[in-house]
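Provenance and format

Records in this collection were gathered into a single text stream. Each protein contributes a sequence line and a token line. The two records reproduced below are adjacent in the stream.
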Amino acid sequence: MDSYILIITGIIKITLLDIVLSGDNIGIIALATKDLPEKLAKKASFIGVIFAILLRILFSCFITYILMIEWLPIKLFGGIILIIITFDFIKPKNTDVTTKGKSVPGFWRAIYSIVFADLTMSIDNVLAIAGSANGNIFLIIFGLLINIPIIFLGSVYVANIMKKHPFVIYIGGAILAHTAFDMFLHDKLILSIVPEFFVIYIPYAVAIIIIAYGYYITSLEKDRLRSKKSFR
């Protein structure tokens, strides 16, 4: 009876943990697919989710060996990659041209972005799930599998919101930038040379700057649309 209670408790803990941890992945996929047609966006999201799960399985198998390499600055490189990807998402860009029956260049770009971003974030997610599962293989597998519907459905929903309300793009960018700088600054190499004050507050400062920038850009776009309507 006690073992069943532990399993049920573990399932609840991991489900809640997955919902929280999947936020970054949902944000990445939503940002990467926001400019794609609906069908391609769903296809790219699905491929991104599959890669996310495969990477988690891979890291679940090798996490012990990876963490034994103390000199490897995993968070440093992961944070840098995520910073580049995040700022690439929020910078102004031209919309890719679509053609019937053919994929657009943005589709493959979205896939690459999703895969690289998942690669940087999977280690922390796997560590959290493994810790909550207390070594129970069933719970670890459950935690990995439940990511599929959470990330896929969540990313599709968030991407649709971003298309209707562009300011949400910058909110997502701010969250991802916070994650990226937090990961970068918490690498052992950076912690040894950067004061704790900067480690704590820089991720928040960057997030606030991106939100302010997003408000400025979206306000300009609204003014431009109003001007167009007034001339008609």
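Adjacent record:
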Amino acid sequence: MSGVLTALVVLLALLLGIGLVLRIGAKRLAPDEDSVVERINAVLPQTQCAQCGYPGCRPYAEAIARGEADINQCPPGGETGVRELAELLGREPKPLDAERGETKPPQVALIDEDRCIGCTLCIQACPVDAIVGAARRMHTVIEADCTGCELCLPPCPVDCIDLVPRPAPFIWPEPDAPRRSIPIEVRHG
């Protein structure tokens, strides 16, 4: 019985030691919410489209903070994003870099399910995991998660993905709309 007790004590000590190391590591590696990188990242649109030349918004924010990237490389952020970054960093605003692409209205991917062959290439290309499906089965887009980044378009071998304008959110009931009353016939009997 003492062998089992010794094993439990050793296992408990090991788990406590690992927990302590993880706790210390989490404190040291936690992002500083007030850091310049975090504030820049908060301004970026989080489309993860890579049009800026970086694999996502956070790496682009880090490059701006290090002075390796300019503030005008994000087409989804548009001129508004450039102005916000300029104000945040105390720089002069500049025109959006036209070589990176153009600013477009919010859009979302839509898969033509009749043409989808289930190749999974779009799933692998999606940086925000907004496409679901299985191999050799139809895929679909989770509209709420799709950023409209267009990265799913090039790998699709059957061209079954289209980008459509993002629908406006449905709000019901309208707060200022007059309420209709429905007459109810009451019978006494």
